[in-house]
Amino acid sequence: MKVSKTYQLKAEDVDELFAKLEQKYVIYAPVRIQGGGRYAKQDSILYKPVHKYEEIEYNERSTYSMKEVLTPITQTLFYFTEDEYRESKMKEKKDILLFGRACDINSIKIQDRIYLKNGDTEDYFYKRVRDKIKFALMECADEFDGCFCCSTGTNRTDMYSIAVSFGGDINNVEVKDEEFRKYFQNYKLSDYEIKFPVENKLKVKFSVIENLDMVNKIKNHPMWDEFEDRCIGCGSCTVACSTCTCFETTDIVYTQNANVGERRRTCSSCMLENFDEVAGGNSFRKKISERYRYKILHKVYGYNARFNDGPMCVGCGRCSARCPELISYPATLNKLCDAVEEIKKQGGNENV
Ligand code: SF4
Ligand code: SF4
């Protein structure tokens, strides 16, 4: 039985609503940054605090995902002296209302698994932000170029407090979370139902790689060779990825006193040279094609082997959109499917 209610709001009503919500929440949503893109005269769309309806970029996919609200590109975790440390203060004192698409909200489930359920210890600095977040689902009336959320099953979600269908003069807002009801008492009820994508033009198949024997055969397949020349190892795909979580920690010591400093966590990437360097200077994936292979197999096999949760991908399409070398992640996945089939046909994986 549907317990949520939907309300109809004009644009000015949404501004009024935001003013009321802002007493309790900081509202984060995708915002267009004019001229802030990679190339001249290109914009970028980033997650920023918003106060008004018109600030939200509703009609295009954000350049980066909502993960930047939870795990900024760089953040100070704590400050230290010789014998004590102090935790960094949180940027937001209020709770956070985070606007995002179904795929992006689903990506937070994957982030949660990696930061909160990967071993015995939760990541404290992730959790302290995560505990403050409620989601506002943004309806996808049309798909964006290169999306394939229907192939990853991330086209729907029920993990939201409110859901919005913004359309200028008439805006529909479904209220699912009791806590939000009080903000909507003055608005007209509507029978609108929030829509989810049901089919994408782009369809992607994820290979089923059932065991390590097949992984090892796939690792030696020649399909990876082309990426040695094509990929430049810039890490742009993983920084933009909704589900990638790699970071590095650095202790910054202050010039005047080397016993005092701060520990920072900075977004990183398995695609970068030296990311996997260990004590003694050894590195496991020296070639770019090996790093690309690692990334793809982690998405398709490694994450699922660890969490039994399907691929580590929500089909947002940002990785391909951000790649300066025009490397298509869906095309790689399709090649991987062909390679798996080829190995099976050759009888090269008796255990599958
Ligand atoms: S791998 Fe690509 S499509 Fe999948 S979640 Fe990451 S950026 Fe989106
Ligand atoms: S964005 Fe493209 S070129 Fe850069 S690391 Fe990723 S696949 Fe390679």
TrEMBL record:
InterPro entries: 4Fe4S_Fe-S-bd (IPR017896), 4Fe4S_Fe_S_CS (IPR017900), Sulphite_reductase_A (IPR014259). It holds the Pfam family Fer4_22. SUPFAM superfamilies: alpha-helical ferredoxin. Keywords: Iron, Iron-sulfur, Metal-binding. Residues 220-252, 303-332 form the 4Fe-4S ferredoxin-type domain. PROSITE patterns: 4FE4S_FER_1 (PS00198), 4FE4S_FER_2 (PS51379). It comes from Clostridium aromativorans. It comes from the Bacteria. This is Anaerobic sulfite reductase subunit AsrA. Transmembrane segments: none annotated. The keyword RNA-binding does not apply. The keyword Metal-binding applies.
